[in-house]
From TrEMBL:
Domain PRELI/MSF1 span(s) in chain numbering: 1-181
Designated name of the protein: PRLD2 protein
One Gene Ontology cellular component annotation held by this UniProt entry: mitochondrial intermembrane space
Organism name: Rynchops niger (Black skimmer)
Length: 181
């Protein structure tokens, strides 16, 4: 099955500033769960000028704590599997400064046998105003390893993801406000 979350936001800042803020967004005191972001690959296609980046984000695991709030879980083996100290997310991005857009794909590297989390996002110059930036994001969560609880966990994960998206946008707005005034 699976659930999706979609968002569209217009940042009233130029593309270059929005992308620069995004690339230094984490780690940040505004989001304590993201503890590190490491660029593991970066290369520029000399024929197109497109900059490719692959980054790994390390996040504190808050899932077992959340599960305790959602349900009384009797299967110790399934809960203990979720008690890993960190969650790892991989993000790939393609930045095209000439066309003023950056496409991104990310997915969770942790618990792939139980669930999948993926996101696709795009920053691009706004058609409404060239000094603004459109942001679109689509995320999908699918839980496969929890039996009858799959749907319950997916519904909760959808709510959790929506909160995360709102928080990420709020952090971007604050960084842009600090940077651009």
């Amino acid at each position: 099955m699976g659930v999706t979350v979609e968002v569209h936001r217009v940042y009233r800042y130029p593309f270059e500033q929005v992308v620069a803020s995004y690339l230094r967004k984490y780690p940040s005191p505004m989001e304590k769960n993201v503890t590190a972001v490491e660029t593991v690959e970066e290369k520029t296609d000399l024929s197109t000028g497109i900059i490719y980046r692959r980054r790994i984000a390390t996040c504190q695991n808050v899932i077992p704590e959340i599960l305790r709030k959602v349900t009384t879980y009797n299967s110790i083996s399934q809960v203990s599997v979720l008690k890993v100290p960190d969650i790892y997310l991989e993000e790939e991005s393609w930045l095209n400064m000439e066309k003023r857009n950056m496409a991104m794909r990310s997915h969770c590297l942790t618990w792939t046998q139980y669930a999948s989390l993926s996101e696709e996002s795009v920053f691009r110059e706004s058609l409404e105003n060239p000094n603004w930036t459109d942001f679109t994001q689509k995320g999908r969560i699918s839980v496969t390893g929890a039996g009858l609880l799959n749907c319950v966990l997916e519904t909760f994960a959808q709510s959790f993801l929506k909160q995360g998206v709102k928080k990420g946008i709020k952090i971007m707005e604050k960084l842009l406000q600090e940077q651009c005034g």
